[in-house]
Amino acid sequence: MSTPDHTNSRSDPRWVRITLVTAALGVVGVLIVIPLVDVFVEAFGRGFGAYWRTLTADEDTLAAIRLTMTVAPIAVVTNLIFGIAAAWAISRFRFPGRTLLTALIDLPFSVSPVVAGLIFVLIFGLQGYLGPWLRAHDWRIIFATPGLVLATTFVTFPFVARELIPVMEAIGADEEIAAVSLGASGWQLFRRVTLPNIKWGLVYGLILCNARAMGEFGAVYVVSGHITGRTDTMPLRVEKLFQEYNTPGAFAVASLLASLALVTLAVKTALEWKTRRDLAEAARLRSEGEEP
Amino acid sequence: MSITVKQVSKSFGSFRALEHVSLEVAGGSLVALLGPSGSGKTTLLRIIAGLEVPDAGTVLYQDEDVTEAAVKDRNVGFVFQHYALFRHMTVFENVAFGLRVRRWPRKRVKERVGELLRLIQLDGLAGSYPSQLSGGQRQRVALARALAPEPKVLLLDEPFGALDAKVRQDLRQWLRRLHDEIHVTSVFVTHDQEEAFEVADRVVIMNHGHVEQTGTPREIFERPANPFVMDFLGNVNVFHGHVVRGRMKVGSFEVDYPAHPHDEPRPATAFVRSHELELLAKRNGRPSLEGKVVHVSPAGPVVRARVFAADFGVVLNVDVTRDRYAELGLEVGDTVYVAARDVRVYVQDYII
Question: Is A182 within 8 Å of B97 when comparing Cβ atoms?
């Protein structure tokens, strides 16, 4: 496969290659590298001390960081459980509605986050279907942490499942059937056989899920009600500081989110490499097993 | 422990994998389920194991009805064609798995695994991972893993199907020796008749979800119950003709068929195994067919000749001993006469 591609790219005229490479690097540089560097330059422009004070002196910023640190883990854990269950169901069973479920898992990716937020307002908001009942029982969902968790969970819903389904399909059910034939219970089977086989794919999905959960803006914006110090998450706080012309503050919080992106990227690259190797290994083991 | 399968049926969608199959496996015996692909042999094995639930019928272990029992409660050892070893566990941990999930004490696990690794002659590789082993070694580990929890029944699904010819040969002799030592009731699935005949005490021949014949390898080879079994065993020449008044006529061949003494002719099929045909340089009074040698394959313990019988327009496969081959000085293009030592005729349900 790679050899003909290679020959083709070599046979392209020199100017084509130079133009393509320059265009690609130019776009990546202008759209990605420069803005990212700029975030850090702006944040640290007046020294680390000033940066640290900007972050820690503002009670509302600290509250936003704490809120994100609460909402994101809950959303990630919820999607961890759902993701494994969905991947297991889809890759191991044939049932009516399986194709529909597979399609629905991707829905949050294709729906605008703002719409997702509005859906929750429509259901749980004061004027929503469940609003009066919730108010009667003194439960607050919209404009409170539960609403943020719901919106974030919805938006990050596909990451774990989408990552696990191909991994579990590539590995196949053989080892699990073998474990059952050896007397393993469902839980033993999962903990001793399935989990070790999918762990890297799982971590990969969780990392992406977490990055999105912490960075989510649109859906959270709609359900939060922008109550400073109460329902502002980090991305909402960045926007608010920016609107208040507090550029150093906005960039300081933005730099935290950007660092999260860099860490995610590094872990993701490492895991992608590892997952690819594991999948290749799985494919190799299978094909060897099938030789006559 | 004996296994009894009574009137088991199983369908997958519109495909009927098994139809009213019954089977007896004596305690301590080694039985082969032999048949072409799609014959239902693997489905039957999986039903015996509890990996599939039959639509109808019962499965008994000794006298206990286990039809509804879950796999994990049946205490069976199952060996998969593609090994299904746990890739992230060492050989030791693979073999120990069935013991760990049963919460055996650490010390006994160690002893039992050591014992099995010696049995499969892989005690030096306890710390290796499956990916570091050869196919034959992996299958031995899979066997040890299945045997570790001391199963009442050992079930093997095409255990040697994925191995190359030489390793396969060694491993099946080894399986036979192993079975002679441990005597666990065993059933294995294969599509290779040589494998079934060499290893098994009894062979069950299956086709289209039915059992065609059950017997010792010798019984099946010497007395195939029907045309399917005859044909499936292979190395056979097939002639189509008619029986009339107690005789089957195939060209100048005539064979007695006393079971049909009537006047009205009935279509019949005659089978002659290639080693039951004889080549003659000239006619000697016995009924024979004239033919021309079209191919000779002299490399092997017997010489295989292909002879074109112009009267029938068929090519016959004839096995000749090496001595006879030398004596005849057989060459392509020679005219020879083919005589049959043994012919089996099947008329619908009648057999001689």
Answer: yes
pLDDT band at A283 (very low <50, low <70, confident <90, very high): low
For residues B331, B336, B339, B341, the Cα torsion angle rounded to the nearest 10 degrees is: -20
In the block, residue with structure tokens 């060492």: B90
CA A211 to chain B, closest CA, distance in angstroms equals 29
pLDDT per residue over B222-257, tens digit each? Answer: 888 888 898 888 888 888 888 888 888 776 677 778
Residue recorded with tokens 């019928």: B57
Is B47 an interface residue toward A (CB < 8 Å)?
Answer: no
% of residues, chain A, pLDDT over 90: 29
Contacts of A175 in chain B (CB under 8 A): 84-87
CATH domain B3-230 topology: Rossmann fold (3.40.50)
Do domains B3-230 and B235-346 share one topology? The answer is no
3-state SS assignment for residue B242: strand
pLDDT level of residue B73 (50, 70, 90 thresholds):
confident
Q: Among residues B307, B305, B309, which one has the least CA distance to residue B253?
A: B309
Domain covering A47-290 assigned CATH 2.60.40.1080 in the classification? no
Give B276's DSSP letter: G
Domain boundaries, chain A: 1-44, 47-290
Quote the CA–CA distance of B279 and B338 in Å, as a whole number: 5
Is A183 in contact with B82 (Cβ distance < 8 A)?
no
State the complex-level ipTM. 0.78
Is A188 close to B78, i.e. CB distance below 8 A? no
Question: Smallest Cα–Cα separation from A247: which of A256, A238, A260?
Answer: A238
Whether B86 sits inside 8 A of A185 (CB atoms) is no
Parallel, antiparallel, or unpaired: how do β-strands B76-79 and B153-157 relate?
A: parallel
Overall pTM > 0.80: no
A103 vs B: CB within 8 A = no
- Collect all residues of chain A within an 8 Å Cβ-Cβ radius of residue B81: 289
Q: Which two tokens stand for residue B13?
A: 């969608």
Q: Using one digit for the tens of pLDDT, what is the confidence trace for B127-148?
A: 889 988 988 899 999 999 999 9
What is the distance in angstroms between the Cα of B150 and the nearest Cα belonging to chain A? 10
In chain B, where are the structural domains located?
A: 3-230, 235-346
Instruction: Say if B12 is an interface residue toward chain A (CB within 8 Å).
Output: no
Query: B275's torsion region: left (phi>0), alpha (psi -120 to 50) or beta?
Result: alpha
Q: Which amino acid is at A270?
A: A
| A60–chain B Cβ distance below 8 A for any pair | no
**Domain boundaries B235-346, CATH class:** mainly beta
List the beta strands (DSSP E) in B28-183.
Answer: 30-34, 56-61, 64-65, 76-79, 153-157
